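Dear colleagues,

As part of the handover before I leave the project, I'm documenting each prediction I ran so the next person doesn't have to rerun anything. This entry is a single chain, and its sequence is reproduced below.
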Amino acid sequence: MEDAFTSLAGSFLFADIDVTDPQFSRSVIVILEHTPQNAFGLIVNKRLDGIAPFKTDYSNLGFFKGGPVSRTLFCLHNGLPQEYRSKGERLIAPGIWFEPSLDILKEYTSEVYTLKAEERVRWHLYQGYAGWGPNQLDLELRRGLWHPMPVRAAWVFYHTPDTLWEEGMQALGGFLSVVAQTGFKPSRN
């Protein structure tokens, strides 16, 4: 009897300490889509050095490596005003929207300087994405390579990316908390 499928869209995935691929080691991924046929997400804790892909002085912008697939730019934000939303925008989880149109964002950043910095929408750009083929993510989950947790918008937009993996693993608790504190898996007898 096959297990019923449960979508992890709108969840964090925390990479297990045994994930040694440099692309995913200690990664935290927000899953945007998850079906039996595929999964698609963005790594949210690996900043990219350099300049944003378009000129802006907008202070609430973060630029991240979204994953190893493609060099396409994607955006997550915490709530653009309605007039700046494209038809392709979709809510991922409370406080997190996916926006596929960078033109909308360019327009928004050119017109928001009348707002105080704390009133401006927070948004992050991601270059590339993490993707899985049919049942691939489910197999990796069964192998213990990823640890899911409901996504928290505050962790995406207001948290220090460098410590997100450790703090998330501690929040997952139990044995994973020990892994986060020590950086390795103690042997189980």
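DSSP finds five helices and nine strands in the chain. The domain at 11-182 is CATH 3.40.1740.10 (VC0467-like).

All the best with the project,
I.
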